[in-house]
């Protein structure tokens, strides 16, 4: 089944973003005048947005990242402003609809996609509260009340934003890495198109420009909304399974997996974390402990050794037996998750600093034989994609049985 990720602003909804944001921030600044000067609020807003745009590690949602920069900068705690901000989005934000216009061609396109049974995601940049995103969807005539989107990216849940490839990787992780073709439709080359292609998927660039892009995905295209559906039909018939074997796509997977697991964890009651779907299967906590210890005791030491030594020998390690040997079932899942994210963040930081040449550094593995850092890190990313499906299946089954 085809999975289509649609951008929102100036894709499904006509919305000149600079004009919209000017009026948006002005209105919000006026609403907050009793607590903070509008100029000070705007400086804090820019700091919060910059923090979200530069975030590259899996811990913390976009909301948490923004809050950590914004509220200390204005000198007011979030709780004091909660009622005022809620009132702003309920009463003032709807007035900004006048600066947007629905696109009948976009409405028809989305309807046809659902009629074909495709998996539809609203992949808007999650920089503002969910109410702002859902209201704009309604302004586009594409309300979530009327269309069963598989997911809508919002800043209360997402851990990455565009233009990071990890943003798209987090969405695909939440979908357990669809086996069928995947594509994005958007208007912004830098935010929408390039990161999806870097991940390995084709993109449709909504543009009037006649630009040759020799380095684009071979199945990518450009044009108007009216051209999108035939392009999607062709992808549905001909696109092959993506192979995520480039450093960028591998790194995006390593960043996104703990982020998606955190979103999964929110859906699970504490008493279900250590429950096994079957007696011989792993619980959610056991799976997290497995991820944590493989990263901490296998992946991190191996990657460090390859970067520090010349063609080192790497012994094979059977990590599956650790589940029973170490009694993972008795661990506290949230603590294990925190510990795993810390180790994974360290791996991401190390690998983010290496050169292109370092990816080719060699090693000798007891099972795989001659290998490279790139191949071993790729194995880790594949390991992530396999276990994210297991994590979701585990959560679904224990929830359905209780």
Looking at the structure, what is the overall shape?
globular
- How does the helix and strand content classify structurally? alpha/beta
Count every beta strand, where a strand is a DSSP E run of 2 or more residues. 11
Average pLDDT level: 95
H/E order of the elements? EEHHHHEHEHEHEHEEHHHEHHEEH
Low-confidence stretches: none
In whole angstroms, the N-to-C terminal distance is 30 Å
> Strand arrangement, largest sheet?
5-4-1-6-7-8
Structure description:
- By secondary structure, the chain is α/β, with parallel strands linked by helices.
- Helix content is 53%, strand content 9%.
- A 6-stranded parallel beta sheet has the order 5-4-1-6-7-8, sandwiched between helices.
- The longest helix is centred in the C-terminal third of the chain and has 28 residues.
- It is globular and about 65 Å long.
- The two termini are 30 Å apart.
